[in-house]
Write a structure and sequence with these properties.
Elements lengths: L24 H16 L4 E3 L9 E5 L5 E13 L2 E7 L2 E10 L2 E7 L5 E7 H14 L10 H23 L11
């Protein structure tokens, strides 16, 4: 079952995540729930803290539609600079040009604890940076001007209130009657 996606500025999104030390069935279940949440939201990447779990694990989508997990990732090198339009499942319906680097080298573990190194550029480098930012307690809006960040923050707080009200409403046919 897919987990709900947490909306920024929830505290779990602004706090660094903890390293994964247990590579057992619980990690496999978490990855499955994250993949389902990402698919439901039509995303190309998702970090565990976006579903409320403060662990250093994310799923990264490739341009060909496949995906892979990164556990305990480390950015080893960054080259170049580019501004790319970026969005986020935790900041829904917001797209802004965000400064990023063009090429990255990343070291990470897979779900079986095996270490890998990957050099990436283009969209894959972009998604890797975005997800590793999440794991470090940052959201893409942190890279924007304070004015844009404040405007987006106001929208997200309103969205959080709206979602909280919907959860409090009784289910159809239960509780109070509606006209």
């Amino acid at each position: 079952m897919a987990r709900d996606i947490v909306i920024w500025p929830h505290k779990v999104l602004t706090t660094s995540t903890q390293p994964v030390t247990d590579f057992g069935p619980a990690l496999e279940t978490l990855l499955q729930e994250m993949a389902e949440a990402m698919a439901e939201a039509k995303g190309i990447g998702i970090a565990a803290n976006q579903v409320g779990i403060p662990l250093r694990v994310a799923i990264v989508g490739r341009e060909d539609g496949t995906q892979f997990e990164i556990v305990n990732p480390q950015l080893l090198s960054k080259e170049g600079s580019v501004k790319l339009e970026e969005g986020c499942l935790s900041v829904p319906d917001v797209w802004e040009k965000c400064p990023r680097v063009e090429r990255v080298k990343v070291r990470y573990q897979d779900k079986t604890a095996q270490w890998h190194e990957l050099e990436a550029e283009g969209r894959l480098a972009h998604v890797l940076q975005h997800e590793i930012d999440h794991l470090d307690g940052h959201v893409f809006v942190d890279h924007l001007s304070s004015l844009k960040r404040t405007l987006i923050l106001d929208r997200m707080k309103k969205l959080q209130k709206s979602l909280a009200r919907r959860k409090e409403e009784p289910a159809e046919g239960k509780g109070t009657k509606r006209s």
